[in-house]
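Task: complex structure prediction.
Instruction: return C-alpha cells for all chains below.
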Amino acid sequence: MPAERVADLYRAYIDCLNSQDWENLGIYVGQDVRYNGVLVGLDGYRQAREAEFRAIPDLRFDVQILVADDTMVASRLNFDISPQGTFLGLPVNGRRISFSENVFYEFAEGKIASVWSIVDKAAIEAQLSAA
Amino acid sequence: MPAERVADLYRAYIDCLNSQDWENLGIYVGQDVRYNGVLVGLDGYRQAREAEFRAIPDLRFDVQILVADDTMVASRLNFDISPQGTFLGLPVNGRRISFSENVFYEFAEGKIASVWSIVDKAAIEAQLSAA
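Output:
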C-alpha cells in the first residue's frame, strides 16, 4: 500500500478511537493484533482502549508527528488528560497531565497487526513531583 | 531528500555513534539541534552521547524498526546494556538490562535538527524489581 494511503488509514483509526466508535475498530485493527509483543487480539485491544476511556473521561489522541512507509506508521501522540486514580502505577488521581507516546504500528492486509508503544512515564513523574 | 536517502543517512549516523567517531558527528547532526524541545546544539549533543558511553561501557545502538519519509526518521532502538550507577534515576549499578527507545528525528539541510525521544523506563523498572 502506498505510504500516503497507510497514513490516511492511520488517521481514520485515530478518528475511530476519538469518537469511541468501537463497532468499527475492526476496520483498522486485525483479529490477531499484537501489542508490545503480546498477542492481545482485536477483542483484547478493544477492551483495553474502552477501559482507558472509562479511566480517563477526557482522553483524546492527538497526532503530533506521523511518519509512514508502505507497511509501517510511526506516530508521536500528545495527551493533555486527567486520568482518574492510578495511571501507569502513578497516583494521578484526576490531576491534568501532559505527556507523549511514541508508537509504531505494523500493517498487514490493510490492518494494524503489531503495535510497539512507549509512553513518557518520566514526564508524568516530573509533573507529579513538581505539583 | 528521498526517504531512502534519509534512512541511509540515519544508519550512517548510528554507525558513527557505535564507533564513537565524535569528530564526524557534525556530518549528521546540525549545529542547532534540539533534543526533546531543548536547544542543546551539536556540542551539547556530542557531550551527552560521550557521557552515555562513559557511563555505559557496553553501549550499542541497535535499530529494530526504521520508518523514514523525505524529512523524518522514526526508529525503535533496542538496548541490551549494563549502565554503571544510576540510569534514568534508577539504581541499575552495572546490572544488564534490556529495553527500547522510540525516537523521532527531523532532518533539515541533510542533518538531524530535532529529536523527540522516549525511553521505556517502565521496562527497566520491571527488570530491577524482578531481580
